[in-house]
């Protein structure tokens, strides 16, 4: 890549909004991947209909749940590249075992979605799992993804639907607003920034993609209890940074207040097996 790409990479490196520090990436892998992202990763890769021998790029790969499934699907004759801005997430990703039947080797890259460190037209498929909404310049990120695709390439990505259709996120955001302030819920509300399907369609078309198909699906997400859900969100997501503002005793009191409010709202979703609430996601398929 030339110096222009390097300059763009340096400029954009500090822009991505959804970041995890300290032990949060490990906690994310331990709690949120099994409960949330693994469900949608399998769904996304199925929709992408990966074929043996294809070259795949996973953008904003996190701890690699999509990349590892993709490596299984494309086989030994395929290849998978996985990119994330967060070094902690990549450290966890590299430490995890491959899917049992995977034979493609995953190449891990630390870099920005706004300046992909790859030549033009080198991938058959680009995947992006629940990440596009966090990029500070979505059109640029999509243009970069399209740049990396071959002339007959395709993209498969997903984003969360409206926050009102995702009761746990909505309840936690309202509680954060009430007990800490509106800035506290910004990270959670940002998860739903691309929830309007018409805006999403225009965004894809504006980046040069064709045959844009958007489908909406709902899955049940499970946690042991509302308390577990709240505490995991406050330790394994960017909400963990809120704790630095308070002493330990005050922070624990705030957590208990959040648990009380969120638990009251989510009570209809609590049963003998714990908390099970619906989560809505838009899946997008398009061609380059």
| Overall geometric form | globular
The radius of gyration over CA amounts to: 19 Å
Number of strands: 8
The name of the CATH topology of the domain at 3-164 and 193-221 and 278-287 is: Rossmann fold
Q: Count of helical segments?
A: 10
Summarize the main sheet.
8 strands, mixed
CATH class of the domain at 3-164 and 193-221 and 278-287: Alpha Beta
Look at the helices and sheets and give the structural class.
alpha/beta
Mean pLDDT comes to 91
Cα(first) to Cα(last) distance is 21 Å
How much helicity do the residues have? 40-55%
- Beta-strand percentage? 15-25%
Q: SSE string, helix = H, strand = E?
A: HHEHEHEEHEHHHEHHEE
Any idea what the CATH superfamily of the domain at 3-164 and 193-221 and 278-287 is called?
Answer: Vaccinia Virus protein VP39
Regions with pLDDT < 50 over 5+ consecutive residues? 1-20
CATH architecture assignment of the domain at 3-164 and 193-221 and 278-287: 3-Layer(aba) Sandwich
Helices and strands in order:
Elements: H1 3-12, H2 24-48, E1 55-59, H3 65-74, E2 79-84, H4 87-95, E3 106-110, E4 123-129, H5 138-147, E5 149-160, H6 167-179, H7 186-190, H8 197-206, E6 210-223, H9 226-236, H10 248-266, E7 270-271, E8 274-287
Parallel strand pairs: 1-2, 1-4, 2-3, 4-5
Antiparallel strand pairs: 5-8, 6-8, 7-8
Helix pairs in contact: 2-3, 6-10, 9-10
């Amino acid at each position: 890549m030339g110096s222009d790409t390097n300059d763009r990479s340096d400029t954009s490196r500090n822009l991505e909004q959804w970041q995890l520090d300290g032990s949060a990436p490990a906690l994310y892998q331990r709690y949120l991947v099994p409960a949330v992202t693994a469900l949608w990763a399998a769904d996304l890769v199925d929709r992408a209909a990966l074929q043996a021998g294809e070259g795949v790029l996973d953008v904003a790969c996190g701890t690699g749940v999509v990349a590892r499934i993709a490596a299984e699907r494309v086989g030994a004759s395929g290849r998978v590249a996985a990119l994330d801005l967060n070094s902690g997430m990549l450290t966890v990703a590299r430490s995890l075992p491959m899917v049992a039947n995977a034979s493609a080797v995953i190449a891990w890259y630390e870099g920005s979605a706004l300046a992909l460190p790859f030549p033009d037209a080198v991938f058959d498929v680009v995947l992006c799992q629940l990440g596009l909404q966090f990029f500070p310049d979505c059109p640029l990120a999509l243009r970069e993804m399209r740049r990396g695709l071959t002339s007959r390439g395709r993209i498969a990505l997903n984003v969360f639907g409206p926050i009102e259709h995702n009761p746990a996120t909505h309840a936690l955001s309202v509680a954060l607003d009430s007990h800490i302030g509106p800035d506290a819920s910004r990270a959670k509300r940002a998860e739903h920034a691309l929830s309007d399907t018409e805006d999403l369609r225009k965004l894809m078309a504006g980046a040069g993609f064709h045959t844009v198909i958007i489908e909406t699906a709902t899955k049940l997400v499970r946690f042991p209890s509302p308390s577990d859900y709240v505490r995991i969100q406050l330790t394994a997501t960017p909400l963990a940074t809120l704790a630095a503002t308070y002493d330990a005793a005050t922070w624990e009191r705030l957590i208990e207040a959040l648990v009380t409010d969120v638990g009251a709202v989510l009570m209809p979703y609590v049963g003998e097996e714990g908390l099970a609430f619906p989560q809505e996601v838009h899946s997008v398929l398009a061609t380059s």
